[in-house]
Amino acid sequence: MPRKNWHSLPEYEALRAVMEGNTTASAARRLGLSQSAVSRSISTLEGRIGRSLFERVGGRLKPTMAAVELNSRLDALFEALDRLDGPTEQRGNSLRLMAPPSFANRFLTGHVASFLSARPEYFLSLEIGTSEAVISGVQDNRYDLGIVGIEMTRNGVKLIPFLRAEAACVMLPGHPLSKCETVRPQDLDQQNFVAFINRHARRAQLDRVLLEARSAPRLVAEVSTSAAAIDLVRAGLGVAVVNPFPAIQENRGELEFRRFASPISFQVYFVVPDNRPLSRMARHFMQHVRLHTSRNEFTQPIRMA
Length: 305
Fold this sequence. Notes:
alpha/beta; Arc Repressor Mutant, subunit A; 6-stranded mixed β-sheet; about 25% strand
């Protein structure tokens, strides 16, 4: 007679706790158990399914692919238990979010306000920092979710595409180029121009586009972000080719955005942990942002598979 594969909720709880904390000690504190009890639960679960769930790397437990796959299948179970029992701890109803200033100011704060108004049982902490700090913060379990506009791969994090934005030429109203429906590279010749600094990935792309068009703008300033370039354009220094998102979401006519004829594009990502469960609140907030980000001619949402 075949052996029945019994399910054990404590074992599954131990698996999720170890994946979140990366050590049996942190999992034990989270569950209110002894470290040996957590280790026994993981060992028993491994014996029952016949697969190794963790490997020790540098004093921490790294989940195997078997652990990641099993944990993803457990999401529905624990969400069902949450619905039956209600919230059992503050952590399940809180979210630690981090983003660069260009996304945090106005764009994210607006979404945070509407999200918490619709779900008053939730608590959210929003931190502002560089894109590199967002990536490392999610990697180190200091934040549950991040949003960035750069593609940076690192162990322990995963980038989930949110939207794609076409490059836009930004200028003040009344600028001669505002008469163009689409700005071509040659249209920038001899125009006062705010560029990205040389180490920015899009600078080399734009330089190639301008060189091929034999266009030579008058460089007046260099910056490291689209937000800074837009601020200098607003101050009257010239025009710039930028990522229009999310600035165009809040534009009330003080700036003009025009399509820029080039293959240059930008992408925005959610930053999520790749070695521990994504919280229910993080999933809800991602869905909220996707549903409530207004559409415009420059951006194309990227739906999750």
